[in-house]
Amino acid sequence: MHLPHPLQRLPASADPSLRSDTAPMDIIFIDGFRGNTVIGICDDELHAPQPVRIDLSAGLPRSLACSTDRIGDTIDYGAVRSALRELLESHRFQLLEAFAEGIANLLLGRFGAHWVRVAVTKPGKFDDVDGVGVIIERRRATPEHAAPRRAAEVLHVLGTGLFPENRLD
Question: Which of 53, 114, 122, 138 is catalytic?
Fold first, then answer.
């Protein structure tokens, strides 16, 4: 049975290339990665690996590879595939949400993606549905968004304890 691609079921407004508030991105994707892993919260899921499907998209602002034609200037989906295989064997997540977050962090951290969308599906989890799962979308924190937050945190720490507490005694 052919499952529709979970990322295609999202509304067009969720596609970063169609939103006016984001810069154009080159999207590298893996569609229909299949593997087996132990994940879940039910007793029947905690002892034997079960199938999962991973669909992911990782965005880069205009990849240099468009000009250089070198794999080192983009995200190598072969390397991502290998990293996913390793993650399936080594993770300790119970929930698909946490597993998807781990994949997103991998793409943002190790592979330098600026934006990611990760869908993780358990096909056949229930007899009456094709699959259950989660789709998450994450962006790398940009310096202009991180700096004000860090500054506010520093000011808060510096200001802590400078003023005595209001006392009514």
Answer: 122
